């Protein structure tokens, strides 16, 4: 949580990085992703995308900061702790995953959004389980 | 801090708040413009933050509404925790923090005014950059630039409620008559310990000052007295 009263997401400065396609040595992984191109490295794609992407997170952060100012540091800390506990999933990455506890904590349990109706896996069955687990545990 | 974005609704405005012995008087015009189109000619720019704390909004309508909403939300939470009404300084401080931390994306000038038990009546001016200034009287908005001289020359300390209401009314009427983005009617609130009294002055009852006189061509125009004597004479016969 960032103790800031930002109402809308800030416009992100233009960056380019090889983080997404890097292998364990920190360089671009040519074997997996093909030759290195600028297109894969460009990070900024226009301020509207960043704004929409960070919208919910910014609103949530504003509410948490106000809670911190009013009730003390413990209030947002407890909420974030509860969310982390609810989202701790010991299972391997299976495709259909619903987390009712997390939905309730985030206040999404009584709303139906486009993502719920048009749900479906973004990619097919996991091709590389090790890579999925790496991503999940953030190694 | 950007200028208004294209198509954004502008609260080009005259707003004002003055403190007197038992409370504050806040006032605003009622025009909201989108470019040269008047989107709303009866806007209420005096926004409720708490029972005895109001704010006047100028700048971008969307930005100031968002800030006022969050300010109201925060003060409600504070009231629950503290068990009593928040002070005007608390309200002004939270508005100022939001204005300053978002200053690269907002264009909002806000005046927070009200009455609280500890400090009595107070007026806080939060201009464009997000600074906080306490003053006995504050004016803001695009129309305020035309009336700084009038306010400096007229304001006296120690006024009662009626004189302060008159001061606000005259100042806003002068600002509205010179500023293109201010106009409509005058809305005022008188906030005291006992309550909030709203006053409304429609556009045809505004105080009027010197409204200009066409001076060009004065020398060649016949005075009215001369014209009436000329009309007694019969028209002259003309040979064709």
TrEMBL record, chain A:
Keywords: Chaperone, Proteasome. InterPro entries: Ump1 (IPR008012). Signal peptide: none annotated. One of its GO terms (cellular component) is proteasome complex. The keyword Ubl conjugation does not apply. It holds the Pfam family UMP1. The keyword Cell cycle does not apply. Belongs to the POMP/UMP1 family. This is Proteasome maturation factor UMP1-domain-containing protein.
From TrEMBL, chain B:
It is found in: Cytoplasm; Nucleus. Pfam families: Proteasome. Signal peptide: none annotated. It comes from the Eukaryota. Its main location: cytoplasm. It catalyses: Cleavage of peptide bonds with very broad specificity. SUPFAM superfamilies: N-terminal nucleophile aminohydrolases (Ntn hydrolases). Component of the proteasome complex. Belongs to the peptidase T1B family. Component of the proteasome, a multicatalytic proteinase complex which is characterized by its ability to cleave peptides with Arg, Phe, Tyr, Leu, and Glu adjacent to the leaving group at neutral or slightly basic pH. The proteasome has an ATP-dependent proteolytic activity. This is Proteasome subunit beta.
